[in-house]
Amino acid sequence: MNKNLKIFNKLLTDTRIKIFVSCVRFNSTKNDFENRNILKEKNRGLIVGIFPNKSDQFDKLMSSGPQSVYCGFDPTASSLHIGNLLAIIMLIHCQRRGHNPLALIGSATALIGDPSGKTYDRMILDSSEIVSNSNRIQKNILKIFQNHEKYIWQRNNQTALPKLKVLNNIKWYENMNVIKFMSMYAKHLRMGDLLSRKQIETRIKSKEGINYTEFSYQLFQAYDWYHLLDTYNCTIQIGGNDQTGNIKTGHELISKLKPDKRIFGLTLPIITSEKGDKLGKSAGNAVWLEEDMFSAFDFYQFFFNTSDQMVETYLKLFTFLPTNEIEDIMLKHRKSPEKFLAQRKLASELTILVHGETGLDSAIKCTNAFFHSDRESLARMTENEIESAFKGASTVALTMAPEMSVLECAVEAKCFRSIEDATSIIKAGGFRINGTLVTNPQEALVYGQHILSNNITVIRVGKKNYYLIKWMA
Questions:
Q1: C-alpha–C-alpha distance, residues 381 and 28, integer Å
Q2: What is the separation of C-alpha 39 from the centre of its chain, rounded to a whole number of angstroms?
Q3: Is 380 left (phi over 0), alpha (psi -120 to 50) or beta?
Q4: Order of strands across the sheet with 431-433?
């Protein structure tokens, strides 16, 4: 096993994955961050559980100075999703209160497989895929932290934030002796406790049961926390509510090895749809954070379409707006719900956090073009933006003929079954070019009006049928 892990770590090194971000400094003073108590985020609904449930001891830990706080991300996909985003946001809240954020990429534990939330064995990825995923996930995390500091934190603050460390657990497992690992650490955990974990009980009762590798996952996550405590004095672990069992196992291991240390686990809500279905990779409805998997426009639209019942909850969970500002937004929203003020603010704050200013500008430009028939926005869109906004539209490449008419264009683009259908629907008012209603089938195409400066024409037939024309030189 050690040989394989060494090869795997070499792959990580060869692809230039940075195992942690250098030049880390934690130089803030107590006066910079007046209230360090992370439990204040309960008011936003971000914290649903604390383990052990000893708020007084947690308060003392908070008042003793900056703590190191970690959350783990296994690279089982090539992008994180909005469920992971909530954990990143919680890490940033900790950072905003003066604590030291640690993001742990679990390249080693991805080879084991977390049984949480599964009723069947996880499919283990090959090493090269885990390396690629690890690299992309690291970029996900770094970009979000950088966007937060640049576009959100610095709006109203000049204080330097504690710097993020991104670590990879392959570093401490590559030279680990299996016998030593089991005899030094696994012996401290009791089988009754391990079997009582909800994720283990669920899997044992399932049709497939659970294999030993996934059963042992909680031991590896426990050791990760022990290693981070030993190396970075990491006293707090955060994770989704489905990670409660793994966090308890880590607490139990550390309480045996370092009984004088006060450590705590904080659990976050699981993001679900309004129907209560979990949003994520396993459920097949993930909202990805990488733009090549889920565009900035789609991301913006996902949150813009949040219902009135959920928008206040999402503003508290996913943005860094003060709660009094959220209350003010909701008051205005309830007076004029047709303006979608709350949804617009939610979508804007989240898109700039995940995709930056460029991503937000692109999303708004695509939104104006798609929903508001804004010809100027259409003309400024790139080919990729247009394809993203008009996903599923039939696309054709045409060459402009002299004095080509609207009717000829529509027929060439295969918008209609016949010339008769085309003529009838155009005259009836069911045909738009670049958002403008056209009712004369014989109208000649004009560059800048029917053909945009980016050599694109967007046709809409009826209310929902879109066609894209790419004009060839």
A1: 43
A2: 23
A3: alpha
A4: 394-399, 465-472, 456-461, 431-433, 436-437
